Batch of 2 targets.
Target 1
Amino acid sequence: MAMETLSEAMTRLERDGYTESVAAHDDGLLHCSGCDAVCDPHDLTIDEVVRFEGDSNPDDEAVLFALNCGEHKSLYAVAFGPDTPPNDVAAVRALTKRHRDG
């Protein structure tokens, strides 16, 4: 069975109502396009995490978070590599820790 691609996962989640987007803001905080609020990653519900790993190149890694702030369902996609912005790195670390710790 073929792995789901990033675009396929985004399309699937958009069909499930994840229509807003989230972007990393200063200090790893997240900006929601739906409510225009800046949120701490610890205040969001993580409904799903989808990881993508390159077969031959470790720089081909990405993660997709399906997030819920109570009012909006949002997607946050980040490609990993040496050029990943520090704000994205901080946000992904916080979200990953929250997801792992429950």
Target 2
Amino acid sequence: MTGRPDLTLTSGKNGTSIALTGSWTAPHAARLEFLSSEMASKAGNATSVSFELAAIDELDTYGAWLFERARREFEKAGITTSILGVSERNQPLLAEVADTNRDDAPDGQRRTIYRGEQAYDFEPESWHDWLSYFVLLGASLSALWRSITHPARYRLTSTVYQFDRVGWKALPIVLLVTFIIGLIIAQQGFFHFRRFGADLYIVDMIGFLIMREMGLLLTAIVVAGRSGSSYTAELGSMKMREEIDALKTMGFDPVEVLILPRVLVLVLALPVLTFLGSMAALAGAGLIAITYVGMAPTLFLDRLHEAITLDHFLVGMIKAPFMGLVIGLISCVEGLRVLGSTTSLGTHTTQSVVKSIFMIIVLDGLFALFFSSIRM
């Protein structure tokens, strides 16, 4: 039966001797970590240290490396070391570990991206968070070009499946949310402005507000929370189970197989969902105008027809594919960043939704400035 790992230090004229006893194996990890750190403190100001390993009952790679790490610390401090009493069974393992270069990289070369799960060590690495989206965009465009030049490579089945999930199955919640928001906007507008006799102008406001802004924003936020988080969770789970590495081993391009269909579907599906969501919001506004205000349906439709121009419609439709692209890139990148724990999966799923919604709002503001500058 193997014993608990321990060490005994003896000082003499010929230097310091450290005798290792017991089982230096992984099941005793906590104890071994403590002992390896204790070696340096117990040795004091010794000029030479000899390690006696004859009393070691068991030794595995973990214990051998901790011992070797402690020995290297003595060497770095200028203390001469020697190893005595190594059994024939443990000699090959200790020799293999001693030949392994496991020193830390120089400070100028160390590029740790994460501290914990989310913060960055160096200021330049803060750009990595955003540059990675452009890297994935470039890889997706490259995969798209290969699919165009070689149509047989394109994953049509995967695209149809993703379109069903992102488009068709997302339609009920998109219609419900936009319809309710249309009701609320119309009710508040009529409630506050009808005292001024501005009922017809409220229809104008509702028309261009929904077609230019609200229909798209509401749809994009719903898709980011529903489909974007799903993408991140799926890719993160695949990363945790090393399925993406398996694809690479089999010779498949993960961007071509996993990323391109998802991003492309969002680019194509979001304009469709935006249009249908805008129609649902206008229907909700019309319901309030007819039931709450008592406006004739024909009057509401005529006024809406006059208020909504082709420019209002195009502004919303032009912005939609870019919103879909942003959601797709962010959700896929965050999924690929998942580490090997469920905590990491939850963290990156949350970051995916938050970053997507933030970028949707920022991008919408930039588009608003652009369209205003060209008077559209």
